[in-house]
Amino acid sequence: MKSLTASLAIAMIAMTVLITSSFAQDAPEGFTSLFDGKSVDGWEQKNGTATYEVVDGTVKGTTAEGSPNSFLCTTKEFGDFELHFEVKCDPELNSGVQIRSVSKPDYKKGRVHGPQVEIAGLTKVSGFVYSEGTGRGWISQTRTEHSNYKKDDWNKYRVVAQGNRVQTWINGESVEDLEIPAVEPVKGFIGLQVHGIGKKAGPFSVQWKNIFIKELVAEAGAAAEETDKSNAKEGTREGKAMHGTPVVDGKIDDIWKDVPALMTNRDVEIENTLEEGQKLATASVKCLWDDGHLYCLAEVKDDKIGTESFDDWAQDSVEFFVDENMSKSSPYDDDDAQYRTSAAGAETYGASTDGENYTSKVTKVDGGYIVEACIKLKTEVGKKIGFDVQVNNDPGTGFRGSIAKWNDATNNTWESMSGVGVLELVK
Ligand code: BGC
Ligand code: CA
């Protein structure tokens, strides 16, 4: 009898372990888990009065009426790291994850402050970085709206902080890659925010799970470069062009606002000769279409503009590739084209491309430039076309130091359409 009860107890324990472990995943190789799925050991609450509890292997934060911002913070501090977590947040609630953050009695009575990676269901700027508690506002100066964040669902975040560079991804798509100003703290806790709410509001909640961290050596750029490369190994990207006609003047009209962005950030490794301190130039690209035209808006991040090289393709420039019948042909067929606009506004084309079908306008902005272009389609296209974007970067040497692509991580798109991505023309 006794042994039966004992084995029953063991079976029950085993079941509980099974149930719990189905929520809490094992840390990926090289990572440590910050949350064990059962307790908030290793964490402490600061500032507001929101409640944090462990529910079904997640840590769940719930708002308290009239409370200021609350934070559940690691007791340990981190400087350079790669952080992974999953989060699900009520759409009405604003949240975020503090990195390198601090709380000091002599600064606003312990107010938690430092960089925060945004989590927000109502705006499309999740993943951008905000300077919490300092009054300095957004650290991400450009916040191109995107749809990588799934409202009211679980979202996988990845944050790489190394030296003064912070990069973020949501659900595998790059969102931010920026230089953190020296005024922000360089080391501190990771903090899970439940935003403050007014009286008679809420309750709203936010849940986190699978919070893993890997500490990085503070070697300039090395790990960050590696993450860009791993990104290049993911499969064929599919993007959407929305229906509409912009004015092609290099200014961002309202019509671009709700168009999802294609992150042109795949590192064409083989062409990359960047040296320490030089950065990959990337772009966030939006597409619109109407009868017979494709419109592209590329917002390029490039901290140093160089358009002196003898070769057009070695100058800071953006290239658009169109494979109208999606045949991925190599070499180009009649329906294929390669168009290029330099940061100085010069238009050039691939050898078999007719420039008559292309117009573009360039605007220089802080930290880069904008290319807005109109491509006249040559054939009657279906619902999908083959498409790619390339950002050429002269890091100030007079030579091309890097190429970033939307889809094809090789440098072959100028002669072969075999690696292009898919653009759906949405009506
Ligand atoms: C490529 C260059 C090539 C050029 C030809 C560019 O897209 O990156 O390597 O020589 O096209 O137009
Ligand atoms: Ca450049």
CATH topology of the largest domain: Jelly Rolls
Order of helices and strands: HEEEEEEEEEEEEEEEHEEEEEEEEEEEEE
According to CATH, the homologous superfamily of the largest domain is Exo-inulinase, domain 1
The whole-number mean of residue pLDDT values reads 90
Query: Roughly how many Å apart are the termini?
Result: 70 Å
Figure out the total of helices: 2
Globally, the shape reads elongated
- List the ligand species: beta-D-glucopyranose, calcium ion
What does this structure look like?
It is a single chain. Strands 16, 17, 18, 19, 20, 21, 22, 23, 24, 25, 26, 27 and 28 form a 13-stranded mixed β-sheet that branches. Strands 1, 3, 4, 6, 11, 12, 13 and 15 form an eight-stranded antiparallel β-sheet that branches. The protein starts with a helix and ends with a strand. The chain has two domains: 24-215, Exo-inulinase, domain 1 (Jelly Rolls); 235-425, Immunoglobulin-like, CATH 2.60.40. 7% of the residues lie in helices and 40% in strands. The chain contains two helices and 28 strands. Strand 26 (384-393) and strand 27 (402-405) form a beta hairpin. Residues 16-22 and 218-233 have low confidence and may be disordered. It is mainly β.
Q: What is this structure's SSE topology?
A:
Layout lengths: L1 H22 L8 E2 L9 E5 L3 E5 L2 E5 L7 E5 L6 E9 L4 E8 L12 E7 L8 E4 L4 E2 L16 E8 L2 E6 L2 E7 L9 E6 L10 E11 L6 H10 L6 E6 L18 E3 L1 E2 L14 E9 L2 E9 L15 E7 L12 E7 L4 E3 L8 E8 L2 E9 L7 E10 L8 E4 L15 E5 L2
Parallel strand pairs: 16-19, 16-28
Antiparallel strand pairs: 1-15, 2-5, 3-4, 4-15, 5-14, 6-11, 6-15, 7-8, 7-14, 8-9, 9-10, 11-12, 12-13, 17-19, 18-27, 19-20, 20-25, 21-22, 21-26, 22-23, 24-25, 26-27, 26-28
This protein binds beta-D-glucopyranose and calcium ion.
The site of beta-D-glucopyranose (BGC) has 6 residues, from loops.
